Amino acid sequence: MRLRSIRGGRQGDMNDCWLVAAMTLLATEAPHYIRDMLVTKEISAEGKYVAQIHSNGTLKTLQLDDYFPCFTFTVRFPHDIV
């Protein structure tokens, strides 16, 4: 997702507005923080990635994939306003 401005993020159907807002701000104002979160630095042929975030003072390791969550063939993810 490439955001063109801080107002470019829009919540999907996953009730993730808090995450979209935080990631949009970081991507716009301090993209190095997002790069630093990613343990996997290259595009994965398997579509699997590792990231690390702090949650309530504890470092958490996340395993991510490049699949889009769907429900009845409707994509459910945050999207960029074009």
- The dominant shape is globular
- Percent of residues in helices comes to 10-25%
Radius of gyration: 14 Å
The number of helical runs is 2
Report how far apart the termini are: 11 Å
How are strands sequenced across the largest beta sheet?
1-6
Helices and strands, in order, run as: EHHEEEEE
Rounded average pLDDT: 75
Structure in words:
The protein has 82 residues and is α+β, with helices and mostly antiparallel strands. It has 2 domains: 1-37, no CATH class; 38-75, no CATH class. The chain contains 2 helices and 6 strands; from the N terminus they run βααβββββ. The strands form 3 sheets. It has a two-stranded antiparallel ribbon. It has a two-stranded antiparallel ribbon with strand order 2-3. Strand 2 (48-55) and strand 3 (58-65) form a beta hairpin. Helix 1 (17-29) packs across helix 2 (31-37). The longest helix has 13 residues, at 17-29. The chain is globular and about 30 Å long. The model has no long low-confidence stretch (mean pLDDT 75).
Topology:
Layout: E1 9-10, H1 17-29, H2 31-37, E2 48-55, E3 58-65, E4 70-71, E5 74-75, E6 79-80
Antiparallel strand pairs: 1-6, 2-3, 4-5
Helix pairs in contact: 1-2
Task: Explain briefly what this protein structure is.
By secondary structure, this protein is α+β, with helices and mostly antiparallel strands.
Looking at this protein, list some descriptive labels.
single chain, 82 residues, alpha+beta, two-stranded antiparallel sheet, 2 helices, 24% helix
